[in-house]
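Structural prep section.
Before we set up the soaks we want a predicted structure of the protein with 1-O-phosphono-alpha-D-glucopyranose in place, mainly to decide which crystallisation condition to try first. Input record follows.
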Amino acid sequence: MATTIRRAVIPAAGIGSRLLPLTKAIPKEMLPVGDKPVIEHTVCELVDSGITDITIVVSAGKGLIQDHFRPSPALAEQLRADGKDRFADAVDQVAELSHKGHITYLDQHGPYGNGTPVLNASHNFGEEPMLVLWPDDVFVSEVPRAQQLIRAYEATRCPVLALMPMDRSESHRYGVPVVKEDMGGGMLRITGLVEKPKPADAPSEFAAIGGYVVTPGVVDELREQTRRWYAAGDTTAEVYLTDAINAYASTRAAYGQVIQGRWFDTGNPASYLEAQFATALQHPEYGPRLRELARSMDTPNS
Ligand code: G1P
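Run finished without errors. Recording the tokens verbatim:
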């Protein structure tokens, strides 16, 4: 088994229905958070964590993602000729990110569900483990979430899920792990993963938050699920990464890593606004003005 992780998949074929009508014409991955589209936060996180091979799995209508990361030397040159070096640098930096992360794109094909893009991309990766990150999560953390997952993989060489502590009343929104043992340092040995249980049925008070180390054994489980999907001929069923991890963890070692940092699920309208607010407050140039604005809005008559 590989000693570390160099490859990553970003499933970006979803519709973003929770954010409609914002996402009617704009892919949810391209909505801005701070000074970049949300998917660029994920790509930055991966490149900063040493990932050198990123596959973004897309569907029709997601061309803006490719346009964003595509190098634009003519635009950069024009900006420099006009004395707008700062903007030219910004354009070049996005292209550089694409180059460092060696981004390639794949059309999603197969059953509905978040397991399908992972299976699609796995054909590029052979027997290598891969990181799977949802494109609409933003983390504000000292150590990037991807790096925290890679370290957990390096220590175990097993599948790993990103986890956060969860209030039991929220369990119907998340995959919830069955925890067997606390290994220390935020690492938990898990023996299962239940998708969106009712609070009374939640096996623990942790939520899976859209970051996974997927090993070839988990890909085999996805392949098996997809085979069953075709055999059953039920086109309304979905192929879920949760089910594949659950099947794997029931017989083999798998872990959860509690992630240090603040998590924003920007696919959810309230959390999207919070992510805007939190990243704006952290902005080196505009942050102080926004803090001042927030204070004055809080006490309008002062
Ligand atoms: C997916 C996963 C779920 C996980 C969640 C985190 O659900 O299936 O296990 O907890 O992402 O964001 P979704 O939010 O796509 O319904």
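Observations: The domain at 7-298 is CATH 3.90.550.10 (Spore Coat Polysaccharide Biosynthesis Protein SpsA; Chain A).
Flagged for discussion at group meeting.
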